[in-house]
Design goal:
mainly alpha; 6 helices; 65% helix
């Protein structure tokens, strides 16, 4: 019985370490999101969710390009590029540069002790 619970625990920990392309900075940002959105992003960043992540990222990029239309916005473009960066090496290096900028300019975004946005 304890072996099954150990496998479940290590399986969950293994999935968390594989999530987000192995970048701990992305993991920190995802954990700062509100729970419902964080769960969605966690699901999309899993390696097994590639078939959902690529079309979602592509649609968000197209929505960002069409930001002059109502409901769509420029916010969709970086989110789509971030999702596509999991599968496109050229975008992954750009994402790494953005995280380097965040570490220099906005280190409190990566600090787990600061409160989340969804808390009063």
């Amino acid at each position: 019985m304890s072996t099954a619970s150990d496998e479940h625990t290590t399986g969950t920990a293994g999935a968390a370490s594989q999530m987000a392309g192995g970048d701990p900075r992305l993991d920190k940002l995802v954990h700062r999101l509100p729970p419902r959105m964080g769960d969605t992003v966690t699901y999309l960043l899993k390696p097994s969710s590639r078939w959902v992540r690529i079309p979602s990222g592509g649609l968000l990029v197209v929505g960002g390009v069409l930001s002059f239309l109502p409901v769509l916005g420029v916010w969709m473009l970086p989110l789509g590029l971030a999702l596509l960066a999991e599968d496109v090496p050229a975008l992954r290096s750009s994402r790494s540069k953005v995280f380097d900028w965040i570490e220099r300019r906005k280190p409190h975004w990566l600090d787990p002790s600061t409160p989340k946005n969804d808390q009063p």
